[in-house]
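Reopening this ticket.

The earlier resolution said the output was attached, but the attachment link was broken on my side. Pasting everything inline this time so it's all in one place.
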Amino acid sequence: MTEYYYLDNVDRKILNILQKDSRTPFSRLAKMLDLSESTIHMRVKRLVKEGVIKNFGIEIDLDRIGLNVLAFILIKAEPKKYEDILRKLEEMKEIYDIYDVTGEYYALLKVRVRSREDLAKVLDYIGKLEGVTSTYTMVALRTIKEKKNLDE
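Inline output:
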């Protein structure tokens, strides 16, 4: 069973600030939270060590760079071929997330492409993978909520 890391109120505040801007200096965090810079440093170091913070990165607006077709694809597969299918899907740059799910379908994919034509190519490729028995595709018309930060 997974052991969870307990986030206190200060940890949550640090994470929320860093999620909005991971370049925020520890000195600024310390002033914002009325703590010492060394306390902030130790807490962030611990959050990294415990695996709560996976990386310090940037968020790219995919619509802004032309990847404005967002689709979700559900896949049914032959159980014996499923692991091979997942490995091939992991290699596709158009697939941003792969979820192993319960229910009628085996996997849920989050796909970002430039056009409906590009989406058709992705679907053709997936449909031809050995062991894929069917797919079901939903194109997102708009994003109402996409949670990025812990306490949003």
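Reporter confirms the inline version is readable. The first helix runs from residue 9 to 20. The CA atoms of residues 77 and 132 lie 4 Å apart.
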